[in-house]
Design goal:
Elements (H helix, E strand, L loop, with lengths): L3 E5 L5 E3 L2 H7 L2 E6 L4 E6 H13 L5 H12 L2 E4 L5 E3 L2 H7 L4 E7 L2 E6 H8 L6 H10 L6
Antiparallel strand pairs: 1-7, 2-6, 3-4, 3-5, 4-8, 7-8
């Protein structure tokens, strides 16, 4: 998934999912809390892949159990209605301060939903400028270009 889309939440807590993201997610998908004050949206197939990776970390350490518990406990089945909208659960809206404006971001195998103010703040950090990212890639062992 890719792209950045600005949308508003309606009075019932629904948001329109952009058609390019909808086409990949499918009608039924999974929504869960993410690490960086956003929501993750996975297609059913990608959620299965993700939970396979969660199972692979095992249960032997407290950290592994906490990671598995975080994602599984916060996962909700979701669906897209005939108007292309999905309901963001009230507990997620409250947790992330989502009340009106959101940004939907395609991020590879998943989409993310951000409170617009949080997204804007994140993108104004100095380490996220094009120049900083280019420099970090040049200094890393990542063969990106």
């Amino acid at each position: 998934m890719k792209g950045t889309y600005n949308h508003n939440i309606d009075a019932k807590g629904r948001v329109i999912i952009p058609s390019k993201i909808r086409d990949i997610l499918g009608r039924e998908f999974v929504i869960t809390l993410g690490f960086e004050d956003c929501l993750y949206l996975y297609s059913a197939e990608e959620w299965d892949n993700f939970t396979d990776r969660l199972r692979a970390i095992g249960n032997k350490t407290e950290a592994a159990r906490n990671i598995r518990r975080f994602f599984q406990a916060n996962a909700r089945d979701a669906e897209i209605d005939t108007q292309g909208r999905t309901l963001i659960p009230a507990e997620f809206r409250e947790e992330l301060g989502i009340d009106k404006e959101v940004v939907i971001v395609g991020n590879g195998e998943k989409a993310e939903i951000w409170n617009k103010a949080t997204w804007d703040e994140l993108n104004n950090r100095p380490e996220l400028t094009k120049e900083s990212i280019r420099k970090a890639l040049e200094e890393s062992d990542i063969d990106f270009f």
